[in-house]
Write a structure and sequence with these properties.
With 245 residues, this protein is α/β, with parallel strands linked by helices. The protein has seven helices and eight strands. The chain has a domain of 168 residues: Undecaprenyl pyrophosphate synthetase, CATH 3.40.1180. The chain has a six-stranded parallel beta sheet with strand order 5-6-4-3-7-8, with helices on both faces. It has a two-stranded antiparallel ribbon with strand order 1-2.
Length: 245
């Protein structure tokens, strides 16, 4: 991919950006622990980083971004930590309209059913209000798991088979993709995971089949726009063959 010079400095920057960048926001609890603070403090700082990164994504022209906010497995964490995360989530949903200015659409990946009723209603409202926005799409994975996503799509197709709408041998990869939570959006081109962990942790496992990965030891609350730029520059230097030569 070609590089061009940023307008505000001499740093090389990719001319072609990935169509979909996925962020695994990891390290909030460890960030707090290193400072002798309760884990919820880390989640609050992580929420601030999330806002900064979303704004930067918009500024540089990314069209589709997704964030792993809360997994299906995260409900197993201590009850006080889960409650703190839910309270931060409520606050975010209340002020998200300011963050989503300038034609940004927001969708939630995962089942909303596990959340309290007030949170569900806020999620539905944001999705409805931003439905026609087209400049950038922000996907927030909340109560999301990659295996659950595939199982959800399989149940939809199984119901169609039972109703006689399709036969089992007609099921294709594209039909499965069309029934995932990300239906209508491109697969992930680049996955960014801070905190030193080197795994997907059940995040968009179907959609990341040919994604490039960028790992860093920086904990999510310390992740900066400059670090995102480094990831995009690294991505631009890689050769993507998609199974070919």
């Amino acid at each position: 991919m070609a590089l061009f010079k940023k307008k505000d400095d001499d740093t090389a920057f990719p001319e072609v950006l990935p169509a979909h960048v996925g962020f695994i926001m990891d390290g909030n609890g460890r960030w707090a622990k290193k400072r002798g603070l309760p884990r919820p403090f880390g989640h609050r700082e992580g929420a601030k980083t999330f806002r900064k990164i979303v704004r930067h994504c918009k500024d540089i022209g990314l069209q589709n971004i997704s964030f792993y906010a809360f997994s299906t497995e995260n409900w197993q964490r201590p009850a006080d930590e889960v409650q703190a995360i839910m309270n931060i989530f409520r606050e975010y949903l209340d002020d998200v309209r300011e963050l989503l200015t300038e034609n940004t659409r927001m969708v939630f990946l995962g089942s909303k059913d596990a959340f309290d009723e007030d949170i569900q209603q806020k999620m539905f409202k944001i999705e409805d209000e931003t439905r026609n926005c087209s400049e950038m799409t922000l996907m927030l994975a909340a109560n999301y798991g990659g295996r659950d996503d595939i199982a959800h799509a399989a149940k939809i197709l199984a119901e169609k088979v039972r109703n006689g709408e399709i036969s089992p041998d007609e099921i294709t990869e594209s039909m499965i993709a069309e029934n995932l939570y990300t239906a209508g959006y491109p697969d992930v081109d680049l996955v960014i995971r801070p905190s030193g962990e080197m795994r997907l942790s059940n995040y968009l496992i179907w959609q990341c089949a040919y994604a490039e990965y960028y790992f860093t030891n920086i904990l999510w609350p310390d992740f900066t726009p400059d670090e995102l730029d480094k990831a995009l520059i690294e991505y631009a230097s890689r050769q993507r063959r998609f199974g070919g030569v």
